[in-house]
């Protein structure tokens, strides 16, 4: 009975999409990170990022596993800059998803205006493409200014833990991992634009 109920839910979701829901279904992680090697026992080896900073929460979880776009290439992101972040947005998106491609430029514009005044906020990109090259091209084309989870670490770090059944999915959580706003309200897709509005209301200016 449980299997039958889940099947009906997925069928209903696909029907909703065909009627213009706006999110593309994500029924399983599509990247090839499953067989990636385990994290190094010393993830800071070979990095020179100044004095070590004790990171906790999400900053500690993603320590040394974030990348950022610089001069058209992906480079390690200095996670010590995240030590004061209290509000985290996770953006689940892919280059093959038309609604994602329509929304991402809006998110870039918002982030560029909002981030400089809110050091207590950070957005983490979690890619749903098939390869790191696809992820890099997507980040380059849309000039993404935020850090992204390293492609081969997405599965290992369980970075999709907040992702709903479709993308684009934008989720805001607090420092304890409590979801404050989501593109999905239960089974209803309200879209990432609503989450942007909630971020403006919920994230205080320090």
What this model shows, in words?
The structure is a single chain. With 206 residues, this protein is of the alpha+beta class. The chain has one domain (22-28, 54-202): Glutaredoxin (3-Layer(aba) Sandwich), CATH 3.40.30.10. It is 29% helix and 21% strand. It has 5 helices and 11 strands. It has helices at residues 2-18, 57-61, 98-114, 132-141, 192-202; strands at 24-25, 66-70, 73-76, 87-93, 121-127, 148-149, 166-167, 169-174, 179-182, 184-185, 188-189. The strands form 4 sheets. The chain has a 4-stranded mixed beta sheet with strand order 5-4-8-9. It has a 3-stranded antiparallel beta sheet with strand order 3-2-6, with helices on one face. Strands 1-7 form a two-stranded antiparallel sheet. Helix 3 (98-114) runs parallel beside helix 5 (192-202). The longest helix has 17 residues, at 2-18. It is globular and about 40 Å long. Residues 1-21 and 27-52 have low confidence and may be disordered.
